[in-house]
Amino acid sequence: MNQDHFTTKLRLALRKTLPGTDVQWEMASSDRMINDFPRQKRHDSRLAAVLILLYPLNDEIHTLFIQRPVYRGVHSGQISFPGGRMEKEDPNLTDTAIREACEEVGLCNNDLDILGTLTPLFIPVSNTEVSPVLAFCSTRPVFRPDKKEVVSLIEARLTDFYKPGIVKQKPMVVRDEELDIKYYDYKGSIIWGATAMILYELLVIIEREGIITG
């Protein structure tokens, strides 16, 4: 895997017209969500950012997900990218993503190459618009997860998400409502909701540009 080739092609791809919201929502769960939920932020929406960290492991590109603890909130127990809400001291959303990754998984003082951003995604249930920031690290970082915020880490090989059958659907009770969720079944881990929608846009870009192949 040629790292310079990968980062150059992905950086250039992110400067082109992105697949956008319509593509992201192809991985949304439930017909009701797809048809009825608003897709644009409101005037009172909060801003947040997640860090999609890409790095080599065994000479293949991987990304990092975190398993969040169970708590009283809309994202309780979910698998997500490191990230969180923008704070007053954050100069911009890229800094938000980096700060949150430092706090949650100990990704601090690393030589991150910021490649660009994906399409911001509005999450109606939390009234939050999330900006996905892509960063590349030339070596696998040493992670130090915060046990209060992270139950476990999932290091996932990107090419695995192109395998047949990895996208599945099943009923799940979410906030006392049964939804037919669409998700990635990554070695038994269920990646759904906003994380799956953001991931799907990245996968579409990578496939469209022929950046890496399975």
Largest sheet: 8 strands, mixed
Helix content: 10-25%
Which regions are unreliable across 5 or more consecutive residues at pLDDT < 50? Answer: none
Give the H and E element order. Answer: HHHEEEEHEEEEEEEH
Query: Structural class of the helix and strand makeup?
Result: alpha+beta
CATH class bucket: Alpha Beta
The overall pLDDT, averaged over residues, is 90
The termini sit apart by: 12 Å
Form type = globular
CATH architecture descriptor: Alpha-Beta Complex
Quaternary structure: single chain
How many E strands?
Answer: 11
Q: Report the radius of gyration as a whole number of Å.
A: 16 Å
**Helix count from the secondary structure assignment:** 5
Q: Give the tally of structural domains.
A: 1
**How large is the share of residues in beta strands?**
25-35%
CATH topology: Nucleoside Triphosphate Pyrophosphohydrolase
Write up what this structure looks like.
The chain is of the alpha+beta class and 214 residues long. The protein has a single domain, classed as Nucleoside Triphosphate Pyrophosphohydrolase (Alpha-Beta Complex).
Descriptive tags:
11 strands, alpha+beta, three-stranded antiparallel beta sheet, Nucleoside Triphosphate Pyrophosphohydrolase, eight-stranded mixed beta sheet, 214 residues, globular
Could you provide a short overview of the structure?
With 214 residues, this protein is of the alpha+beta class. Helices cover 24% and strands 33% of the residues. The mean pLDDT is 90.
List the helices and strands and how they pair.
Layout: H1 3-14, H2 21-24, H3 31-36, E1 46-57, E2 60-67, E3 79-80, E4 83-85, H4 93-105, E5 113-117, E6 121-123, E7 128-136, E8 152-157, E9 167-174, E10 177-186, E11 189-192, H5 193-209
Parallel strand pairs: 1-7
Antiparallel strand pairs: 1-2, 1-4, 2-3, 2-8, 5-7, 6-7, 9-10, 10-11
